[in-house]
Amino acid sequence: MARNPHSQQRHAVAVTAGSDEVIDLRVVDRIVEKKGNQKSSAIPILQAVQSQFGYLPRPALTRVCEITEITPAQIEGVATFYSQFRQMPVGKHLISVCHGTACHVAGAERVTEALLRHLGIEGETDTDADGLFTVQKVPCIGCCSLAPVMRIDERVYGWLTPESAPRAVERFLRDQAARASGKGRPPDARAPKQDRAATPVEVRVGLASCCMASGGVAVKDALEGQIRKLGVDAVVRSAGCAGMCYRDPVVEFPGGARYGNVTPDVVSKIVRGHLRPVGTVRRAKEAFGRFTDLLCDDWAWETIDSYAFDADRGSVEGFLAKQKRVVLEGCGELDPADIQDYVRRGGYLALESCVKTMCPEDVIQTVKASGLRGRGGAGYPTGHKWDQVRHAPGLKKYVIVNGDEGDPGAFMDRLILESCPHRILEGVAIAAFAVGADEVYFYVRREYPLAVERAHQAIRQAEERGYLGEGILGTDFCLKVHVAEGAGAFVCGEETGLIAALEGRRGVPRLRPPYPAESGLWGRPTNINNVETYANVPWIIRHGPEAFAAIGTANSRGTKVFALAGAINRGGLIEVPMGITIGEIVEDIGGGIPEGHTFKAVQIGGPSGGCIPATLRGVRIDYEALRQYGAMMGSGGLVVIDETTCMVDVARYFLQFTQDQSCGQCTFCRIGTKRMLEILDRLCRGDGRTGDLELLEELANHVRRTSLCGLGRAAPNPVLTTLRYFRDEYEAHTQGRCPAKRCRALIAYRITDDCIGCTLCAQHCPVQAIEPRPYEKHEIDTDKCIRCGTCQATCPNAAIEIE
Amino acid sequence: MSARLTVDGRQVEVGERATILDAARKLGIVIPTLCHADGLRPAPSCFLCVVQVQGEPHLVPSCVVPAQDGMVVTTDSDDIRAARRTALELLLSDHAGDCEGPCTLACPAGVDIPELLRCLVAGRYGEAAAVMRERIPLPGALSRICPGYCERVCRRGERDEAVAIRALTRFVADTEYAMHGAHVPQPGEPTDRKVAIVGAGPAGLSAAYYLLLEGHGCTLFDQHAEPGGNFRYGLPSFRLPRGLLDVEIDVIRKMGARFRLGTRLGEDVALDDLRREYDAVLLAMGAGMEAPLGCEGGELALSVLEFLCMVSEGAAPHVGGEVVVLGDGKEAVDAARTAVRLGTSRVALLAESSSLATPFLDEHLASARAEGVEFVSPARPTEIVRVGDGRFRVACQRDGGSFITEASVVISAQKRSVDLSLVRSLGLAVSQRGIEVERETLRTGLGDVFAAGEAVSGSSWGVRAVAAGRLAALCIHQYLCGAEVAGEHRLLSVRMGQLSEKERAELFRGTPERAPVRVPGTDMARRKSSFGGVEGELSEPDAVAEAERCLHCDCEAKGTCKLRRYASEYGAVAGRFRGERRAFERDVSHPDVVYEPGKCILCGLCVRIAEAEQERLGMTFARRGFVTRTGVPFGGALQHGLKISAERCAAACPTGALALRRRMSRIDRASS
Predict the structure, then answer these.
(1) Cβ distance of A708 and B61 shorter than 8 Å
(2) What is the DSSP string of B281-323?
(3) What is the CB neighbour count within 10 angstroms for residue A464?
(4) Alpha helix (H) ranges present in A154-202?
(5) Are residues A465 and A349 in the same domain?
(6) Are residues B310 and B452 in the same domain?
(7) Residue predicted with more confidence, B283 or B2
(8) What CA–CA distance (Å, rounded) separates A682 from A687?
(9) A13 vs B631: CB contact, 8 Å cut-off?
(10) Residue range B221-250: average pLDDT?
(11) What is the pLDDT of residue B151?
């Protein structure tokens, strides 16, 4: 192609597809009409353009600049900043492999590789040759208890292995084909109505994303089908998540009978155990059905009792005994899609008492007295922040809900949003009343589509009932709530970065002070708290500050929600009183480490937090105590690590994350974390050099002390804490050893004499590194071996070891 | 509302909206900044301006933190300096560009070769010669004898052939002398300080030149009857014409140098007397002692120094039919080539190492071979015996075997050094190679005595002696001024090192695809029978054409770059953090400004300026994290992005990422 040498196309700051593509610009015009033409509409416009075209075609962007206040510099800056936006067309289906903490330690990397291998995707590309699938790594889907997890379009697949992931892709294709040919599930025309006059029997099924990922929707469909079949007057309500992710999906019948790990196959039995068919014909059919089941269904031999929670009452009690539910009160019981359900349980009473019986100062005083501190990580006293916003000069004030839960390994915000959106709305409305704001921005990660949907739904319902909108509950308090979807940038969890995103800019944090309380959104006083913080507020108002302050430690009052995942028997979402020890969480609530493994450490606080070794299991959950040990509360990810996890690799994993998520503004974070990561990469490759550990430590301290925002300042924490508690592992790496036998460049798989010659490993090896030799001892060709671990997982005789 | 605060222990009051940086400036305290510019909205990114605010656990960027009442600020401490140095080192680790051309960095004297070639192309030969003289006061001589470190690293060589830099410097010197005669610089205002320089060879002459420029008086003492040292007595005239040497020495004489010739240190004049009479002494007497040939009968061989000196003084020995030269240095080759010109029928050069001591000898050796010198290596002499008839028999070992050759003259060219016993007798320490000096300052144990050139290094290249002479002059000047004798303050230089294929293409773009100009040679018969020059002269069009092949690898902003200046000031080490870095790129679409994104440090000044000037496209940040880049939106070329503010952006750019297009010489730039 002849090209003017001066045209410099290669300097494209973003690789955008050629401008010769034809797109319908009227679509763009319509999007702008809907989203507005101000600079602040940039992100919503781009999101709409992308959902229209699958990516951001350049002519569309040019068009946007022509008809809005948005400049080319702004749109290019924004379009290339957020991970959500794609400059190139994508495959027909998008596979997002979660690389959250739990998924990482459970082998997400190997799963990704297996997928890429399966789809024949190589080199720089991320889409297969047929344009059918695009594979991308995503920070966290928030289904940590199912790790490793991937999502194909909107469907989530959990507990993947390098072997099962490709099968899941094939299954997805089969389902697609079936649906296309009409053989799939028929559209349900007779779905039971939600609000009937008579009170029907309610069957609840947990339907947060995690539950859905473990098959909740299919269970719900099966339940509904079964109920129709029996003709009983029952409704299936989707409930939120009870946090017992290790038992997902959970079904609950009236009277509290609960079943866990339910599959559609057992639904009919469970239903028949609780509901009697209506009408003689149905009963006769039912009886016959039971009889045939007995004849031909394997399941018939298994009793449904094994699914009942009663079967492991000890486990459930253990899981719940030491928890204290303030924020999660009713989660798993409430129907998140129904405001009435919330109101029936005392919802919005706190708001009502605030707006009708209290003045804003009283509300602030109450929150101050409760001792509530920000649950986003830093722990700033919430009441003080509200007070500052209230007293900041200016008539126009804003309240922002920070639901940009970007930490890999954390999903409490998602779960609260999905399971109990009204509690957050109520808390926010109280906050707005207290600080004197009339507009709220609800900033939610776009990676949580269900959370976004439920937020919208909840706002609509609350407006209809007069809890939001004009003249709330008959007073003159007005509140407009907007939902803004994040576009994929962890740094937007930093409040000034979030404000930048809301204003339609690159999510680049700025130096504080001035704090948002003084100068926030569009320069106005703004109160920002995270989801969990707001969710505490209604409880505090209803029960009084003293009740709240009675929970926890002197400086850390109340409870904290954690996403408990990793090497643990009972993972899920837990809410614990402050002051509980790490040991209690791991052993009592989590039920300890799976048999055969040992507790090594917990990673607390995600990429900004640190690793606390098992020897410090007595450390209490308390803002100051955690900080003293180099970790931090963070937003609440708590990943349990056993001896099979390499601490250098963990540090590298988190640094890789923050490095990817750095906004790139300041030198220390942009280049410093990169150079730190390169040192860790070297160590994990066995290429460590003398002085590397010292250089790493020195750089870590500079980055910590001199970065601009919280992300950069906290980025070295995982490295510094692992250096502090596991320095011997680092030193082993400088000598080319990985004590956890995890770093692939430093290990080799070997078949021992225990091999029985079953050839299973050879059959499963994805790269034919093992030659099948029936009844003989097998051998691994280490040159071919990619260290995926499949052979070890398939060997029936544990004859494969790592050296 | 104003604020009163304390900065570095001093009180200051500043107005509303003032930053800590403003407060410090008001007190005259300098805080380094890269991303800050008055009048533009602050957007801290470089973090060079960090300071410590009492009670604050982090270091904060002073360019944006508001000055507040009662603040106590520290702007300089070990801690702060370490942070700034680290920031600079991190920026340097992701900064793709060469500050100086590889040629300049390779040149022991550090001649700004790209600049010299730009002057040449612009037809400003005088200025080109001046660029040369900034570093080499004997340009004509050096252009002939230099082994050409510069040409070996020339990036043009990665494409076709290196630029013929030495031929071009020769053209520059010769043209100047031919047109106007040698330029005699104005010596500095006299200082009443006098320096005694022992040795009027390349190091001594060079030192004298630069000392005279500073106004110090210089007297050069030399044992020979004529000045020039090794250039006159150790180099055959076919390599360095004596007439040219006289012209160049004459310049130094005209600047005021005095010569006390035929004077030998330790015999005719004592060091103590010199130290008494002069304010400083420079020992630059060369390396006139040859190591003995380590074989039996070694004393029968003629010393190469003696041989070349005799030839040089017009008293060439009768060489007879065959000459054997034993040695593997450049002197051995010189001796062999000289012997050819003396009419010997056969010259054999027996060298111990298979490649001669340094790769720079390749071309020298090639010339010798072309002139008929036999080259035998590796060969180690074991015995020399006189076989009557004034002939000698040389027995050698080679590859485990041995052979015998005969010759009428045997010349030994062994390692040379200064007379170490003389040095010791002067009360000075000696190293393995010569007089022991402090490496950075060339100062001996006697505070007022400095030493330079081959007297320090042993046998070496003329260009190193000249460079050492300049450094000695600089340090002696520091000493005479009563300043700290610290050596030369060199600006840090970032080097790109090995380029990728793509980067090479970027660098080559826009320079003519011209084949190298061949420097004409002299007819071989004439060459072998006379002591005339070996290489012919370049015509003016050829010289310009050749100079136009230069890629100008040096940075447009090498003199103005703030990153470079601060990195040098804070002692940053460019290679401390290594890892993935940007690629070198060059956008030459704009008529006035060149954009090299690889050099960008993301200060965002251009983005903010373009925004303030309301450019239609302007500049933007794209992507995020480590791969954040600045560029024109939608991948546009710079000419479209910066239509009105390009020059302002270039002026503000703290590095050479955005720079005004290079005028062909510094003079042009000054006048434009």
Answers:
(1) yes
(2) EEE-----EEPPPSSBTGGGSEEHHHHHHHHHTT-PPP--SEE
(3) 11
(4) 164-180
(5) yes
(6) no
(7) B283
(8) 5
(9) yes
(10) 95
(11) 94
Domain assignment present for A739: no
A521 lies in the same domain as A411:
yes
B258 shares its domain with B279: yes
Q: How far is A382 from chain B (nearest CA, A)?
A: 22
Count of all residues that appear for chain B in the document: 672
Asked if residue A293 and residue A244 are part of one domain, the reply reads yes
E strand or H helix at B398: strand B392-398
The residue among B84, B566, B626, B645 with the most chain A CBs within 10 A of its CB, best to mutate, is B626
For residues B284 and B269, state if they share a domain: yes
Q: How many domains does chain B divide into?
A: 5
Nearest to A81 among B43, B601, B624 (CB): B624
Chain B residue with CA closest to A489: the answer is B624
Average pLDDT on B587-616 reads 95
Those residues of chain A that have pLDDT short of 50 are: 1-20, 184-198, 294-302
pLDDT digits (tens, 9 = 90+) for B397-430: 988 889 999 999 999 999 899 999 999 999 999 9
DSSP category for residue A586: I
Q: In a mutagenesis test of the B interface, which of A81, A505, A515, A670 is the best target, namely the one with the most B β-carbons within 10 Å? A: A670
Q: Which long-range contacts (CB under 8 A, 24 or more apart) does A310-319 make?
A: A315/A570, A315/A591, A316/A244, A318/A570, A318/A588, A318/A589, A318/A591, A319/A244, A319/A570, A319/A572, A319/A574, A319/A589, A319/A591
Is there a single domain that holds both residue A394 and residue A304? no
Residues A356 and A446 in one domain: yes
Report the amino acid identity of residue B428. Answer: L
On whether both B266 and B227 belong to a single domain, the answer is: yes
Q: Check B634 against A16: CB less than 8 A apart.
A: yes
Q: In which residue are the tokens 């349980």 written?
A: A345
Residue B65 has pLDDT above 80, yes or no: yes
Per-residue pLDDT, B120: 94
Among B44, B90, B627, whose Cβ lies nearest the Cβ of A708? B44
Which of A243, A234, A231 has its CA nearest to residue A203?
Answer: A234
Domain end point (choices A490, A517, A549): A549
Residue A569 sits in a domain whose CATH number is: 3.10.20.600
- Pair (B343, B386) in one structural domain: yes
**Helices A58-67/A25-35 angle, 10° precision:** 50
A602-to-A379, A647, A680, A722 alpha-carbon distances in Å: 20, 11, 20, 11
Tell me, yes or no, whether B507 lies in a domain: yes
CB contact under 8 A, B627 and A664: yes
Radius of gyration (Cα) for chain A, nearest Å? 27
Q: Are residues B281 and B424 in the same domain?
A: yes
Q: Do both A167 and A223 map to the same domain?
A: no
Residue of B nearest to A74 (CA): B620
Kindly determine whether residue A9 and residue B611, on different chains, have CB atoms separated by under 8 Å: no
Number of domains in chain A: 6
The dihedral through the CA atoms of B623, B627, B631, B637 has a sign that is negative
- CATH at residue A289: 3.40.30.10
Is the residue at A423 inside a domain? yes
Query: What is the pLDDT at residue A788?
Result: 86
Does A708 lie in the same domain as A576? yes
3-state secondary structure of A302: coil
DSSP-based helix, strand, coil % in chain A, nearest 5: 45, 15, 40
B607 chain-A contacts, CB cut-off 8 A: 73
pLDDT at A183: 52
**Boundaries of domain holding B45:** 3-76
Distance CA A623, CA A238 (A): 35
Which residues of chain B have a CB within 8 Å of the CB of A11?
585, 587, 595, 597, 631-632, 635, 637-638
One domain, residues A343 and A465: yes
Residues A663, A755 contacting (CB under 8 angstroms): no
What is the residue range of A31's domain? 11-81
Q: Is residue A490 part of a domain?
A: yes
Mean pLDDT confidence for B431-440: 94
Asked whether the beta carbons of residue B602 and residue A660 sit closer than 8 angstroms, the reply is no
